[in-house]
Amino acid sequence: MVKYREILRLHAQGVTQRGIASSCSHSRNTVREVVKRAEGKNIRWPFEEDLTDADLQNILFPEKHTSSDFRKKPDCDYIHKELAKSGVTLSLLWDEYTLNCRANDDIPYSYRQFCRFYHDYARKTKATMRIKRKPGEQLEVDWAGQTMHLTDNLTGELIPVYIFVSTLSCSQYAYVEGFLSMDSESWITAHIHAFQFYGGVTRIIVPDNLKTGVIKASRSEPVINPSYQEMAEHYQTTIIPARVRKPKDKPSAEGTVGHISTWIIASLRNEKFFTLKEMNEAIQEKLEEFNTKAFQKKEGNRQKAYLEEEKFAMMPLPASMYEIATWQKATVQYDYHINVNQMYYSVPYDYIKYRVDVRVTRNVIEVFYKSLRIASHKKLTGKSGQYSTIPDHMPKDHKQYIDFNQEHVLKWARTVGDHTFTTVQSILSSYQSEKQGLKSCLGLIRLGDKHSIERLELACSKALSYTTRPTLKSIQTILKTGQDKEPNRGSSKLLTKQKDESSYGFTRGADYYGGR
Description:
Distance between the termini: 155 Å
CATH superfamily of the largest domain: Ribonuclease H-like superfamily/Ribonuclease H
Largest sheet: 5 strands, mixed
Radius of gyration: 45 Å
Helix content: 40-55%
Oligomer: single chain
CATH topology of the largest domain: Nucleotidyltransferase, domain 5
């Protein structure tokens, strides 16, 4: 009990409050409050009648003698539910509790007793105590320090297996899986499998500062691995790495790693596994036992705590599972292609010599420049050195060259005229190789650009009046000499004469000698 008599005696003798606190072994706040109450009640040393410390407490602090039956007990079940909400604290709930008591003319408990009521309630009836960690708020992840081993069935060699561990901070519900490496792909795959195991996503992920997750550790602005950050954005969660050499930033994961080392890794030490799938199946069986194992100092277990008190607060999984991607840097070459694993993919020619980011997935190659996607290709497989070229990425001249084929030439000839179309058909059919025919047709197009398509059509008409198989050279001669501008006389006579000629090409007829 507070030494009220001694405090008031020393105060009457002019001893300072600091000196009184030191002499009576009380805090200065207690001394200050006793002196203030005594002055308010006009009680001074020496007392008019003999008063004990209990009498002085009854006079100075009558509320301390109020029976607890008259105080309003807090609703602990309501407190537990409200603490699951973001931003809600015990201090806020106590403030609301006191305001409600005053409004109803009830006497509230102090903040310390309020917290004690909730602590006792949560310890006896609930598996979790929602003070520092909210349900569904935080997932702590890490690699276990100890490894397991596969046995090579041919050589008997031991192959190390690295154990991924994740723990929900509120319910301590754990997920464990083994991988053959600790690379970025294994790290992200482990997260995806953990989210599927939990059936939801937490708002925050707390990893260690390993290179597969964090490129550059920083107290204020850590640089997250692009693939890891993209995975977090896909699941709409946030990555907040633990501080360097601060294991208390993720105590649940650190504690679970120790338990996993005992209850899973050590318990399977005498088992021999030949495949990773076989090992992970055994790990899942032990994990089920670990999550359903009863708590030592409170009721329930990790699985029950998760299902009853945390699963409802988890964010839902997205409609599609995240597809693992890796990022690379590449420079666009003069042929407007980039090299990705010895395969070549086109990029708009405007980005020649620019440095771009390349996102590589199992089926797709995406190219980004300053976070803007500028190209997308289906991933090439098979022999290296293959090219994937999109015509829209090419300069105009290059695109015309690619588009220059037999169909393109015939379409152009049809727009010029019937005689030009017949001439192009004749030229294309006169060569065994299509490329040779297209080369002659390209010369015909250039003649049209040089002399106009109207003259080209007349020249083709003139050439067809001489022969049914005109050549590029003959049309070029007609245009050069201007024969296309002369009237096309005698063409019908010439064609008739050709029909009447002997089937022998070198035989001169009667007409040659002027005979009839």
